[in-house]
Every structure is written in C-alpha cells, then in structure tokens.
Structure prediction request, 104 residues.
Amino acid sequence: MELNITNENFDEILKNNPVVMVDFGATWCGPCKQLAPVVDEIANEYEGRVAVGKADVEECTDITSRFRIRNVPTVLFFKNGELKDKSVGAVPKSSLTDKLNALL
Prediction:
C-alpha cells in the first residue's frame, strides 16, 4: 500500500519506517504517469519491508525545497531517516528495486 506523503506526515513516516521510498511527481507530468504503475507494483511487492509513498511537488513544497527536487519524477530512498540514494526520471523498475535491495 502506498502512503500519501505530506509536509505534515513526512518526518513521522521517516522516523517510523527503517526503509522509505518516496516518489516525487506532479499531476501534469507525463513521465510521472509512466512511473506511477511501477511505484504501485513496488509498493505491493515490498509491503511490510519498505514504506513507499508519493508526494506531489506542488502540494509538498517544504519537502521539495528541503531535498532540492528540481525535476520530476524524482524518487528518494531513505534508510533510518537519512537520504541514501535517488533516481531522476522515468526509469525501469529494476533500477528502483536494485536501489531498494541495497538498503534492505
């Protein structure tokens, strides 16, 4: 199950989950729409091991600024609350799962 990331719940999600993957995107972004089903699949496959969430860059301006998100989609990977890796653009599923597996 995917989490809806907001400015208000972001730090709590990081604190309560050892490994977190956040997909930053926007409703008007074509590549974001391409990546969305891949992120959904990963959320289902890694349920119980990884917290997977989506953040709309126009609604989550605090987080977007904090991590200097300039392009969408951008996927950030956290372990124990620390940013460990990132991916920019509509990438293959294996690219994202490889990064996740390295954190597990």
In short: Strands lie at 2-4, 19-25, 51-56, 74-79, 82-88. The first strand starts at residue 2 and ends at 4. The radius of gyration is 12 Å.
